Amino acid sequence: MVSDSGVRHSFxxxxxxxxxxxxxxxxxxxxxxxxxxxxxxxxxxxxxLSQNSLPFYELHENVILEPISYPYSSSQIKxxxxxxxxxxxxxxxxALSGKLALNVMKATEDLPFSIVRSxxxxxxxxxxxxxxxxxxxxxxxxxLADYTHLLFPxxxxxxxxxxxxxxxxxxxxxxxxxxxxxxSPSKPTTSGKMxxxxxxxxxxxxxxxxxxxxxxxxxxxxxxxxxxxxxxEGSQKEELQQISRKHxxxxxxxxxxxxxxxxxxxxxxxxxxxxxxxxxxGCPMALGEALAHGLPAIGFADxxxxxxxxxxxxxxxxxxxxxxxxxxSEVNYQSTLLSDNEPQPALFGNDLDNNMDDQIRSNQxxxxxxxxxxxxxxxxKYAANAPNSVLNYERSSVLERWSxxxxxxALRTPDITSIRNTRYETYPELHNASxxxxxxxxxxxxxxKTKSFRDILPFAMLYxxx
Length: 466
Prior knowledge:
This protein is an alpha/beta fold. It is built from 16 helices and 13 strands. Strand 9, helix 7 and strand 10 form a beta-alpha-beta unit.
């Protein structure tokens, strides 16, 4: 909402990666920006946009889109800082996770407006997967901000984030549209098929798209009427397509690329099961939307974000947990699957699935998938519970929470200098944040030859470096 006095404010978003492609962070930023623009605020979105491309998600006509180049090298930080200093805004929201946030947050130092560090993943998992355990480097990206956004309150419990973020932290999940048509998880499609659907980046890193394909191909012969549909793009898509084409049951696998919201909804309503094979998530919008459509869902029990949305044996199954209710025993549903320790033929080559961890997870996922593929009764039961399980993510209420959070910050921005001085006196950890960032940037110094993150961050396309 606008302030009580009716004052409109100015907000600037930066981050989210390449906005011409599908992505949860980009979509979330777009929805927040559109909501603020509809309320009459001035909104600017600084983002990476490839030449001759358009944003994948439609922006409100009053949202100003300005293509930028991120400061991938340390030498680019000063010029990026100058770009930010020219902004006329009340609040700058930096929605980046990972090492690129070091450079961007360093560029925000001493700006005359409020800075929000928006984290759309689980900080604990990102510390392992992206920061490689470098707690100081990760923490300083939060300490350089005036305010912090996290998806869930428990994400702030990591002590290495520092005490300073707790009095400025707001937790808001991803917005999910609940007023959507519902699926019929027991009724075959018009062609007589049953559909598994998965939506998101097709990647090995974090997303484990290969494990879903492996799991499905183990079951495909037993379930010839079932299909597996991948919605999205990613670096692993072409390889998985090639594997499917060569596999005897590969005709049951389909790749649709990135699809718009209306097409995504049609896929959900015509499907019978949603599977998300990720290792880690923040607050996965595709999963939330699948549940809103009344689809039973399957994910891994140890995947943060996923295990908050999927309630085991209520709206779906969490692979890795015991599944023993509803007349099935654990022995029965696993009996036809390969043992976790039994050698398997590699579907993906030595570098992708010829390791014990992937084989175990593939078996766990296949066991859960088989359970629901063989039981229309369970699919219907979990589907009936699915929409109500995501009520706390309802789109309009989540966007209002964002509006309240950011407008409240904008109202305090005129006093940002005194606010920073008070925090600096209160929290000694902030004294070293700037120097810590400098040292961390040196540790993660980019290759002088490539001027990119590819040497240290092969998944840099997550943040727009394709």
